[in-house]
Write a structure and sequence with these properties.
The complex is a heterodimer. Chain A is an all-beta fold. Chain A is built from no helices and ten strands. The radius of gyration of chain A is 13 Å and the shape is globular. Chain B contains no helices and eleven strands. Chains A and B meet through strand 4, strand 5 and strand 9 of A and strand 10 of B.
Chain lengths: 114, 111
């Protein structure tokens, strides 16, 4: 079946602009994760959604970052007033039910802030 | 603060050789240790994972060795192939809803 999809694949924006990144998880997966992958820094956890529970936002680096998950499926990560240090690959992953399940990653969105 | 430390940053191995990547952690509450493989332009994919109640897990050419007392775990790739060339990430988790990743190892297998 279809895997996790993300859009856009690449996004170039100017400093100070807002951006929205989209994630379509695997159908039926209740858990969804957002990570940021910076060069030489590995993957940094941002936020976790599990079903209808309140999301775990403990990894969001600042209040410029927010995420929503509508109808328990599609998720949008929004970065307001982008800064150059926000440039990274943003990865989304989903898993069947969260705890103990394999995470399936999307291909990521490469964000470049000029 | 890096929760999981990974080394080396890059590794070059001859075809047929053994690739070894090491990771260390501090938080003894971690109870799940996966390894991910990532090819350029793709998201990471789970390769193999281990829990701290076993010292070794093998799946095909891939083996995880786990040393609980030393708080270290490593990935061994036997008979390395050019198709194994990728970036490898170790990770650790306690609650399974938050994963801490290493900084990655770029593996190149020379034919």
């Amino acid at each position: 079946g279809a895997g996790v999809s993300q859009s856009p694949s690449n996004k170039v924006t100017e400093k100070g602009k807002d951006v929205e990144l989209r994630c379509d998880p695997i159908s039926g997966h209740t858990a969804l994760y957002w990570y940021r992958q910076s060069l030489g820094q590995g993957l940094e956890f941002l936020i976790y959604f599990q079903g209808n529970s309140a999301p775990d936002k403990s990894g969001l680096p600042s209040d410029r970052f927010s995420a929503e998950r509508t109808g328990g499926s599609v998720s949008t990560l929004t970065i307001q007033r982008t800064q150059q240090e926000d440039s990274a690959v943003y990865l989304c992953a989903s898993s069947l039910s969260g705890v103990g399940d394999t995470q399936y990653f999307g291909p990521g969105t490469r964000l470049t802030v000029l | 603060q890096q929760q999981v430390k990974q080394s080396p940053q890059s590794l070059i191995v001859q075809k047929g050789g053994i690739s070894i990547i090491n990771c260390a952690y501090e938080n003894t509450a971690f109870d799940y240790f996966p390894w991910y493989q990532q090819f350029p332009g793709k998201g990471p994919a789970l390769l193999i994972a281990i829990r701290p109640d076993v010292s070794e897990k093998k799946e095909g050419r891939f083996t995880i060795s786990f040393n609980k007392s030393a708080k270290q775990f490593s990935l061994h790739i036997m008979d390395s192939q050019p198709g194994d060339s990728a970036t490898y990430f170790c990770a650790a988790s306690r609650t399974r809803n938050q994963f801490y990743f290493g900084t990655g190892t770029s593996l190149t297998v020379i034919p």
